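Please check these two lines:
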Amino acid sequence: MSDLFYQTRPNPPYPAEVTAFADQLEAIMSDGTHDLDAIVAALNARGVASGGHTTWTAESLSTYVAQLANQ
């Protein structure tokens, strides 16, 4: 049963980098931050890197999240 996680998913799980990004995004939003510019500032302040981005803008974050949603 060690493969149960993979057997119940239609696709492989996201790479660790994406999961770490999602964890940071969730933490930022759970603090009550929901404005796009504030989320961008928080990602940059925390030094979150993912998808080739090390410095976030509203446009790069929107594009990256859209790419993840379409995978």
Summary: Residues 47 and 54 are 7 Å apart (CA to CA). The helical segments are 4-7, 16-30, 36-46, 58-69. The chain is about 60% helix and 0% strand.
